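protien #1 (seq + structre)
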Amino acid sequence: MGRTVGEVARLSGQTVRTLHHYDHIGLLVPAERTPAGHRSYADGDLERLRRILTYRELGFGLEEIAAIIDDPGSDTRAHLLRQHRLVTERIERLRTLAHGLERLLEADTMQLNLTPEERLELFGDFDVDAHAAEAEQRWGACDFYPKAQRDVKNYTKEDWKRNQAEAAEIHRALAAAMAEGAPADGERATDLAERHRDHITRWFYDCTTQAHRGLGALYVDDERFTATVDSHGSGLSAYLRDAFAANADRRERV
């Protein structure tokens, strides 16, 4: 049985008016009409609507969508492959944009003494593990909040390059440990977690084991940090959370 325009509107999240418009311009013409003249949408119509909505989400105009969908050389698989590629490219563009904005926010928060050109060069790929303002917001009321912050505003461009290289090396090593199946609470991962904690202490603030445990939770709880960390490997943020916690437990037992 076909579906009414109201049912299709509810299924797709579109308005009845939008579906009427798609019918009027020939973009989505229902397969059938009831004896009373009402629109009746078949399964094929719903698949066509799914394609339309995906291309709309990607920013295509209705005329472009009609040309793409009605291309006789494109079958269902071709559409799926094209849409997957476009969605993936859009995700990467948005991730790059989000990372860039996050770096600028971090730089502004820390009042870095860098020129705009240096900020652009450095923070395109800059991976700050945490900055003082984020830590203070999350742990400011706690006794273990790291008070001894480094004077990062006086770091030079070369200082930041060394920081970046060191952070990237640690993240690569942690991602490799995860990919190779090393348990997050094992010696390899916790040793790397301790390297990470030492990196923060030397560059930013005195990162106690409790602060480091909380930072690992932040990597999972805050989607900005999750996106940044997981760019080194899918699921790395959760792996780091567990490794930081295990390392904290290990150090606190000593």
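ok now protien #2
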Amino acid sequence: MPLKRAEMVAQRVVHMIQEQGLKPGDPLPIESDMYETFGVGRSTLREALRVLEQQGVIVIRPGRGGGPTVGLPDSRHLASTLALLMQFSDTPFRSVLETREYIEPIAAALCAQNGDERVIDGLRQSVDAMRANISDEDTFLYENHRFHELIAEGARNPLISYFLNSLDWIIDGARLGVVYSQASRKQVALIHDQICEAIEDGDRDRARDAMSEHMRDTRAFFERKHPRVMNQALTWEMYGQ
């Protein structure tokens, strides 16, 4: 299928951003300059910019002194796109858990193998922060996401990182009404500590096995405490930007 003109312009804007080495927050050229550069009219350019804004590539600030600036696409944008695809295929929450159960142990093993000291320090800080604030559900959810985000980063595989972080935005279940008791939070903190210790020791097999146990426990928790959620079809509005 041939690309729409606006999509072609969007691709050229991305190329321009990379070619000029623009960083997040840097302004794009003013509209009149872009009309001339890309040889298109206002409506085509604005449609192209809307496409890029939806993908997180740019941020459009309204008002005087506003305009498009360079953004930074992240895993939440992919989570939104995945949720849209899952809605049209009636994908249940169970499928997200199952997919993560296969991939996350691989990431933990790679993280232990790579031994990135900054990642390891972050994992230990996350475990300590979760334990110190176990009564605070907001802190628990934040540190839970941070821990798994660091694991994915430590794998040093961009595709694993993007995909796992996107699934992690979905899997906390908060948008589906899932509540984590203090006992369940303590269990998560305990297994996070075991995973962290294995990674600190550089033991990829132990890290993989501990993460596998964590994923099985997570699935069992949902099946026991939130069986309705397991079969609930995911929708775009739950995770859209």
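Strands lie at 58-61, 67-70.
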